[in-house]
Every structure is written in structure tokens, then in C-alpha cells.
Amino acid sequence: MKEQGEEEGAEVTSTEAESLESKLDEKTKLADEYLSRLKYLQADFENYKKRVVREREQYEMCATETLIQNLLPIIDTLECAIASASNNTAFEEGIALIHKDLITVLAKEGLKPIAAVGEKFDPYKHEVIMTVTDDDHLEDTILEVFEKGYMLGSKVIRTSKVKVSKLKE
User: Fold this and answer.
1) Which helix (H) or strand (E) element contains residue 1?
2) What is the crossing angle of helices 90-108 and 2-83, to 10°?
3) Count of other CB atoms within 10 angstroms of residue 142
4) Which of 34, 125, 148, 164 measures 20 to 30 Å from 111, CA to CA?
């Protein structure tokens, strides 16, 4: 009779083992699901942080661009004052120093003047104000700048207003 009792106990143990294995499988699947959700949440959070940094940089660039666009007429006025100076007085030298310092500060923020005189006309960087028939220069060569253009980083924030050469027909 001991043999039958032992066999019955072994069957119960085997059933319990199967039950425990199925519970373990369920818990493992649940843990895997939680781990998968956690990984997605971590990835979403990393993407969120990157997006916030990118949006902040864009906002700062936009604010910088607006400020610089508001300062460009002041730079133009200073350049006119320097160009119209008749003799080198201390006052005129002071204005030239202010202009130089302002340009230096704005250059640190990414402002660059657009090259124009002698260059080939580029509609993305230049705006034609006047054309002149000139056989001494190649077609669409910029001869004169009426208003300086500027770039902030790789973006044109003001086009150069220029005079361009045309060949006789």
C-alpha cells in the first residue's frame, strides 16, 4: 500500500509542478510586458527631452534673429555716419569703434555679412535694385551694393540690395 500512496503523492506533486510552471509562465510574461512598457516609456522620455532641447534652440534662434533684424538699421546708420565723416575726429573714431564692437558681438551670435561686389548674382542672397549694361563684366556680376545683406548661421535674414551688370544684346 505504501507504493500506491507514494504514486498518488507523486501525481499530486506533478500536478502542482505543472500549476506552478503555468503560474511562473504567466508571471514571466507579465514581467516581460512590464519591461517592454518601461523601455517604451524610457524611449519616449528620451525623445521628449531631445524635442524640448531642439524647440528651445529654435526659440532662442528666433529671438536672436528678431533682435538682430531690429539692430540692422542701426548698423546701417552707423556705417553711413562713418562713410560721411570728413575728418578723423575723436567723435568719428568713437562711432567707428561702436560699430566695430557691435559687429563683433553680433558675429559671435552667428551674424555674417553676405559677400556681394564682384560676385555672381544669387537670387537667394541678393535683390536686384538696378541693372546696368556693362561689357567689362560678366553677365549678372554685382557691381554695387545699396544695402548690405546678412546671414544668421545658414539662414538669410536680409538680402543684399544690389546693382547688376547685363551685356548688350
Assistant:
1) none
2) 160
3) 22
4) 164
Structural contact between residues 109 and 92, judged by C-beta atoms closer than 8 angstroms = no
Q: Is 68 helix (H, G, I), strand (E, B) or coil?
A: helix
Hey, which residues does 85 pair with through a beta bridge? none
118-124, long-range: CB within 8 Å, 24+ apart, which pairs? 118/142, 121/162, 121/164, 124/156, 124/159
Calculate the CA 78 to chain-centre distance. Answer: 30
What is the rounded CA–CA span in Å between residue 54 and residue 66? 18
- The residue-averaged pLDDT of 24-35 equals 92
Cα angle at 111 between 86 and 61, to 5 degrees?
A: 140
CA angle 158/163/166 to nearest 5° reads: 130
pLDDT digits (tens, 9 = 90+) for 125-163: 888 888 888 777 788 888 888 988 998 888 888 888 998
Does 2.30.22.10 match the CATH number of domain 112-169? yes
In angstroms, the CA 119 to CA 32 distance is: 64
